[in-house]
Amino acid sequence: MTGALTGAVREVLHQALAVYHDDARTHAGLRGHLERLDDPLRIAIAGKVKAGKSTLLNALVGEQIAPTDAGECTQVVTWYRDGRSPRIVAYPSGGPPVSLPVDRRDGALVIDLQGRSAEDLDRMVVDWPSQSLRTATLIDTPGTASLSTQTSRRTVRFLNPEDDTPTEADAVVYLMRQLHASDAEFLEAFRDQGVARAASVNTVGVISRADEIGGGRVDAMSSARAVAGRYRTEPALRGLCQNVVAVAGLLAQTGRTLRQTEFQTLRDLAAAPRDDLDAALLTADRFAAPDGPVAVAAPSTTVEDRRALLRRFGVFGLRLSALLIRQGTDSPAALASELVRRSGLTDLQDVLQTQFAQRRDVLKARSALLALDSVLRANPRPQAALLASDVERIFAGAHEFTELRLLSALRSGAVALPPAVVAEAERLLGETGAGATTRLGLPRDAEPHDVRAAVLDALTRWSDLAGNPMTTRAAADACRVVIRTCEGLLAGAVSGRA
């Protein structure tokens, strides 16, 4: 189905290029949207100031390429793309692009604006050779709720352009330290416009700095995951984002970039008397104190060593690392793997894969149609009337879009189904993944005959519910969408594509 949708979108874009062939600016924009269909998915990372956006981006990439301090460059919308060689380009609001020097210090990329102000720049683009960036371009946005209204406005303007054109992002990862009314209000602004137009399924919520929920205790992530579970059913969020996961971003970033020297210092610390180390790790100041408990128990670690570890691990990461080393983690690779696993980063990567990457073609097609619709409204022409009809037809007729609309409606409560079948409906519509076995709740290696049997069972149940005289009209319409999904799954099972 997805291939047919992409083909239809390509065709209507080609027709639009012919209609606007004499308008250089519009033609170039349409050409860009056509080429964008083949580009990686664009995922914007948004959230309040100090939510940990850049740290999480570094963790996802596996390298420290996004500045995490409060410098001028963190106030600019910055794109991180896969590239053959490292390159940084600044795009002023007026004037030609400017190449910036590529400088790495202590393993981290340093971006020097060379005297330019954030107010002068529209964006920056960082090309970086990375396997992680081949499937998704990550867009780091300035923090909202900033003391600087200009800084916050850059993020809002990017995700919700003032001229009513669609955002350049295909999906959003929204970071929050805990659920505030302002977070819900920010997400609500995109329910019917921008990236989340008509579909909350384009947004994933992340409880960032999740280790702080448990006060930095070794079991803090268990508490954070429980909070994320409650947020997933929170009415204020359920209709605004598809999922909520908990991630300790600093731990994830450090796990992805752990150094041999850091492991050696951690091993020296773990060898100190446990009571002394625990006492030192009650606060960051005690741990870094020149005459504190750990300075006496582990004299081989200097104050500079300990301060560097605090910047990289935080108190939670140090407590956890010491515990893991005491329990037998005996190599940097083993420690790094365990830190990443416990950070929640793997959970987020799984969500991005199943809910964004597997929907890549649908989300890209949707972005292109929204862009074309904006062009047709802003620059109408008599010969473009048929194009407008084609765009409306694709939006209304493509089952992939119908699934997204119904899934969003179910999550927001706009459409009600019997409580006993809501979870199955959302799963069949692709909430947890677009693959046939995932939609059907089967193991990934399920045999074709098991897939076919499960589809037939689902078809029977949903057909019975649609035909039940007690089912409301709105619910029956929703059932028919699910039935159409099942028919597509059945066709795939018969042809061997399941």
Report on the architecture of this protein.
The protein folds into three domains: 41-252 and 346-358, P-loop containing nucleotide triphosphate hydrolases (Rossmann fold); 253-343, no CATH class; 362-495, no CATH class. It is globular. The protein is 53% helix and 11% strand. The protein has helices spanning 2-19, 24-36, 53-61, 149-159, 181-188, 220-232, 235-238, 249-256, 260-270, 274-280, 284-288, 293-297, 303-326, 332-343, 345-355, 360-378, 385-397, 399-412, 419-428, 436-440, 448-467, 473-495; strands at 41-47, 78-82, 87-92, 98-100, 103-105, 108-110, 121-128, 136-140, 171-176, 203-207, 243-246. A hairpin with a 2-residue loop joins strand 5 and strand 6 (108-110). The two termini are 13 Å apart. Helix 9 crosses helix 13 (303-326) and helix 21 runs antiparallel to helix 22 (473-495). The chain contains 22 helices and eleven strands. The chain has a nine-stranded mixed beta sheet with strand order 4-3-7-2-8-1-9-10-11. Strands 5-6 form a two-stranded antiparallel sheet. The model is unreliable at 192-199 (pLDDT under 50). With 498 residues, the protein is of the alpha/beta class.
